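fwd from M.: "can u put these together and see what the complex looks like"

so here's what she sent:
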Amino acid sequence: MFHSKPGIAGVAATAMVTMIGLAYAQSPNTPTTPPAGAQTKAPSGKDRAAIEAAFAKADADHDGKLSKKELSAMPDMLAKFESLDKNKDGMLSLEEFAAGS
Ligand SMILES: [Ca+2]
Ligand SMILES: [Ca+2]
């Protein structure tokens, strides 16, 4: 582009090109960064894996059911215990727990 300009001596033009080249070399000149911020959004509703993780964490004795005692750490779930315990066995299964999550 500078070569087409009249009146610029060859040396000057070369110096210009060199300076421009250096400027380009020094500048990071990062290409268009991909949208790294595009985080994978969880599907609508509670994530099943998260529910299972919460269930497993609350299941202190690992019997696959949550007693009221085990749910004591989850007051909101404890409050819904009676309605969530569909089969009225006094325990919440994973399905019963997931229904209330
Ligand atoms: Ca348990
Ligand atoms: Ca039950």
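replying to her w this: DSSP finds five helices and no strands in the chain.
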